[in-house]
Amino acid sequence: MSGNIVSVHLSDDIKGRLDHLSQTTGRTARALSEEAIEAYLNQQEWQMASIDEAIAVADEGKFVSHDAMSLWLKSWGTDEELLPPANDIFKSTK
What we know:
Layout: H1 12-25, H2 29-59, E1 62-63, H3 66-75, E2 89-90
Antiparallel strand pairs: 1-2
C-alpha cells in the first residue's frame, strides 16, 4: 500500500495502549492509527457540516421558541409524546 508518512509524538501512556491494542487484536499499530485518524476526521467533518447546515437554517430567520421546545422535550417518554415543534418565531433576514 502506498501512502504518506506522518510522524506523531505520542505520550508513553498512549503508545502503550496502542501497542497493547495491537497485540490484542493482531493488527498493526499503523493500521489502528490510520483507522483512528480516519474515524476522527469523519466525526469532525460531520460536525462541521452540521454546524454549517444549522447556520444556514438560522440565517433563514426561522426558529422554534424555548417554550415550544421545552414542551416537546417534556413530553418525551410519556404516553402523550408530542411531534417536534414547528417554527414559531420568524425574524427579518434583511
